[in-house]
């Protein structure tokens, strides 16, 4: 294949890459000062996520002729370390998701993930703020908004109380094109409204932690009985960009196994590639993982905002595509 003239060049300037390097150093110093253990876990595994809305890259082994999967997050292995008694841990690593390229997404990206045994979701999110401010000192204090409040205020529907027909109608009206079949259930319509009505401009004035998601939208989070019944999950939005996903982590092995099985069935129904369930994680939970709060933060996106770049490719040396 012939390379177009100039296509060999990095997508980021050297100035942007120097800024990115300073941000990475700040992150490492942040965790070192707080005595959180830095770890490394495999990028390639015999198992992968079975989350219905996250697709993994499948890699075929020439030796074993079996499928391997590139990680979408280091979560499963890090939780096994927690069950082994690691205490608080963190890492900055690469993750891979088989999704389209865009202004805020590259199929290969950098993620900062960490876990705090014994912490609440609120305590962890306060630490998320502190870390973000190390990279972007100008970041204002974040406020909290429930998933329910956000939908009522920004989309005009109650995601927990309104009938699905009302949610569907609002989603269809919000679409500029005909919605795909995948959005034909309640969760799908809510996802469509989240993207089209709730997320745009969220956190423009100040960062916002969106929290209290439907249980079906947090496969690895602990559930709090209602009403409404919610998952203890929070996402940080700043300038309309989703920066992190935080959970009060599920530690019940039986419930985790059931959720994995349910998600695998859902993927099979949609004829999606379905990686094997991570029975190693289930075994670790059976052994006893301490109650913990955990978070995954998009490092590239944080650098993008801090640098003032419009495209994520401007802060990645060689963005794909």
Task: Compose a concise summary of this entry.
The protein is of the alpha+beta class. It has nine helices and twelve strands.
Descriptive terms for the model:
single chain, 321 residues, alpha+beta, nine-stranded mixed sheet, 12 strands
Provide a descriptive summary of the structure in words.
The chain has nine helices and twelve strands. By secondary structure, the chain is an alpha+beta fold. The protein has a domain at 14-139 and 251-315: Bira Bifunctional Protein, Domain 2 (BirA Bifunctional Protein, domain 2). A hairpin with a 5-residue loop joins strand 9 and strand 10 (230-238). The longest helix is centred in the first third of the chain and has 20 residues, at 14-33. It is globular. 37% of the residues are buried. The mean pLDDT is 93.
Would you spell out the secondary-structure blueprint of this structure?
Layout: H1 14-33, E1 37-38, E2 44-45, E3 58-60, E4 67-70, H2 75-83, E5 89-96, E6 108-117, H3 121-135, E7 143-146, H4 147-155, H5 164-174, H6 186-198, E8 208-213, E9 223-224, E10 230-238, E11 241-248, H7 253-269, H8 279-288, E12 292-298, H9 299-307
Parallel strand pairs: 1-5, 7-8
Antiparallel strand pairs: 2-4, 3-4, 5-6, 6-12, 8-10, 9-10, 10-11, 11-12
Helix pairs in contact: 1-9, 2-8, 4-6, 5-6, 7-8
Could you tell me how far the N terminus lies from the C terminus, measured between alpha carbons in angstroms?
A: 15 Å
> How many strand segments?
12
CATH superfamily of the domain at 14-139 and 251-315: Bira Bifunctional Protein, Domain 2
Proportion in β-strands: 15-25%
- Specify Rg, calculated over alpha carbons: 20 Å
Highest CATH level, the class of the domain at 14-139 and 251-315:
Alpha Beta
Shape: globular
- Category from helices, strands and their pairing: alpha+beta
